[in-house]
Amino acid sequence: MSPAPVIVVTGPSGAGKGTLIAELLRRLPQLEHSISATTRERRPGEQDGREYWFLTPEEFARRVRAGEFLEHVTYVSQRCYGTLRSELERIARGGRICVLELETEGALNIKRTVPGAVTIFISASVAELERRLKERATETHTEIGERLRLAHEQLEQAGEFDHVIVNDELEHAADELERVVRRELALAATIEP
Ligand code: 5GP
Of 29, 44, 105, 129, which sits most exposed with the smallest number of CB within 10 A? Predict the structure, then answer.
């Protein structure tokens, strides 16, 4: 049997990946969000083991050395983020399909190394990204600047992914994401031997 596809949602900070994934999971309950590990600080309201596994840099490095990550990157302000192999195993054991939310470098890594991965780039105009990051107000001024600079670079990479969805209007983008994922899952089911 071919492995179940992995759905990868990527795009710049502020594109609304998290909100769109939450809506996608509500609509397609056979999907489950993989919980990444990170060394960044917890934001108000975030819980260990729910939004992320929050690790110290030492613990993160130990797990890298132990080969526990499928992919990992260093993102803004030297924060580490990574996908734990144990998360994918847990989701597969539960008979579910895994959804990963990654920045673009991690998403490209998965595209190269995981057969059958479906990569979806969530895009938005730079003005909209800036507005959302400022409204969210969870990063310092310097970090917002860094995330926006990176967003410019990431927007140029959109063409490297299987699908691009523009999220300037949430409901419309959520419908489009659902359509794309349903189509990919149906396609994967038909090519399963
Ligand atoms: P935030 O700090 O806003 O939660 O996340 C920053 C960026 O890291 C987002 O673009 C998010 O999608 C990405 N990210 C979260 N988890 C992972 C991961 O496990 N691997 C990679 N490559 N990126 C991740």
Answer: 44
39-97 pLDDT, tens per residue? 999 999 999 999 999 999 999 999 999 999 999 999 988 999 999 999 999 999 999 99
Ligand 1 centroid – CA 120 distance (Å): 14
CATH homologous superfamily of 7-190: P-loop containing nucleotide triphosphate hydrolases (3.40.50.300)
Q: Is the CB of residue 36 below 6 angstroms from any atom belonging to ligand 1?
A: yes
Give CA–CA dist 148/160, Å, rounded.
20
Query: Whose CA is closest to atom 24 on ligand 1?
Result: 102
